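Hi R.,

Here's the chain you asked about this morning:
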Amino acid sequence: MSSRSSYLTSFVSSARLVGVIGTGLIAGYDIGLSHSVIPALVNSSLPGDRLAATWNQVFNNGARFVIPVIVGSTIAFLEAAYRASIRTTQVKTIFGLTNGKQLVIAAFATFAALPYSAISVTPVIYRLKGVNKDAEEARSKGGVFFVDDVAVKTDVEAWGKKNAVRAVLFATSFVLGLTAV
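And here is the predicted structure, written out as tokens:
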């Protein structure tokens, strides 16, 4: 029985660790994008079609990495919360919550980035992807495509700000997961 008990104790630490590392990574990634990459792109002298193409590349690279980490971290925090809730002794965290409750909040804060993105960020993404697609099609046909450079810069800036909100959600999850002792 003692080996099984230590396995479960070890698993709680492992699940929490996965959630903490995952949310820490995507919080740092999104903070870096919002406060370094996006301002550099917006302040560059790229024309609107090139700005949209560059943003599209940054977005696609991030989406392949961020979405699986969100799902994995959410599941890890929920598993850790379940394991913490079935312990015989309940410990309070620095925020006055039990470990289980705090880890559930961390899971929901992590997962909240997906509906937030779907509702708030998706319209900006569609506009920028539309500009990129139209510009690529015009280039492939040898035609000229006129882009409203100001609108593209405004959308890229808006995406950066909305991405910063997601970074706050991930940073919140990171801190909650880290302090759930």
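One quick note: The CA atoms of residues 135 and 141 lie 10 Å apart.

Cheers,
M.
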